[in-house]
Amino acid sequence: MDIRSNEPFWLVKNGLISSYPSLKEDINCDILVVGGGITGSLIAHQMVQDGYETVLIDRREIGNGSTSVTTSMLQYEIDVPLFQLENQVGKVGAIMSYKACHDAIDKLDELATEINSKAGFERKKSLYFASRRSDRNLLQKELKARSAAGFEVTWLESSEIYDEYQIKNTYSGILSQQGASVDAFRLAHDLLDFNIKKGLRVFDKSNIKRVKYQKSDNIAITDSGHNIVARKIIYCPGYEAVELIKNDFVSLKSTFAIVSEPNEEAYKRLENLLVWNTDEPYLYLRTTTDHRLLVGGGDENYKNAARRDAMISRKEGELFKALGKFMPDYPFYRDFNWAGTFGETKDGLPYIGTHKHFTNTYFVLGFGGNGITFSVAGMAMASAWMRNKDHLLSEYFKFNRD
User: Fold this and answer.
1) Whole-model pTM?
2) Going from the N-terminus, what domains does the chain have, and what CATH number goes with each?
3) E-strand spans in 278-388?
4) CA–CA distance, 335 with 294 (Å, rounded to integer)
């Protein structure tokens, strides 16, 4: 599956960070992590920390799938508002899911420091604003739910949003104190580099053709005919999981993004803020460490890569128009545009856990706008699974939960 278009900003910005070999021999390990994006890198880090002999493999270059196109807005807010999620999965599960994403931001901060990452992790506030007058009621319900759950949130009227951030045509908003941004492509490479020094083995451009699922271990067989014998497999392939699990557990969407040229003065307006709104699909904004503005949205149902990429030019115009509505005086000069594919679940929650059709196997599939923070939660869940322990989130993130 082609899950990204050409020349995403993060690939051009970072260039070739590291080079990894393809698999050229039969090997054995405790844990085989399948997927070399940010999720696989995080899970491999946890497995190495837990003392397991770990191998990570990817069919393409490391980080060149969804991780190369993610906007890496780190939020605890899930795509489904808290008050609505409480109605879908119950108050306990909804609040636990939100808190898991909240705590994941702190964990990522600690991780970036621990491995001396150059990924530009930055703490930011998060503004969720009403783009229609009728959405004020939705935001008021959401403010009440988040406040009751103990999250640090503040109500802002439209005049306050304009005075602080010069964003026009809003109808109030919720300002959250917890948020961050990062370069996920760089962070994935930094995590792997840190753990390779501790024994992690990484192979890219090595596709798994099939897997023999057995009682005591599994054997993954690559296109080149080499075998990886692993006690356990942890799949972290992101949206390409639809190639493994043949049911409608996730809907694929195409999303689009544009990035401006660097502009120091304009950057200062939003440098400490993540922005998203109540539009469907929602518009989202963040700055980058080299003083650009990233604008994303315009989601469409995914059909195929060619059809998605053919829409990039039109979607660029739509995003530019949307930005002009809320920030008409922002000097945005486009430098990059691209498209990517992501997954959307009915309740906005990920699929993390075992699957009845896969023996000795675990899945960490963080979908929606919280893929990275869900993956951090998946680190603790996968660690518990390896020790045959239960995790409190397993019931809410499991397969066949509908």
Assistant:
1) 0.94
2) 9-69+185-246+348-397 (3.50.50.60), 106-181+249-344 (3.30.9.10)
3) 284-287, 293-301, 334-344, 351-353, 361-365
4) 10
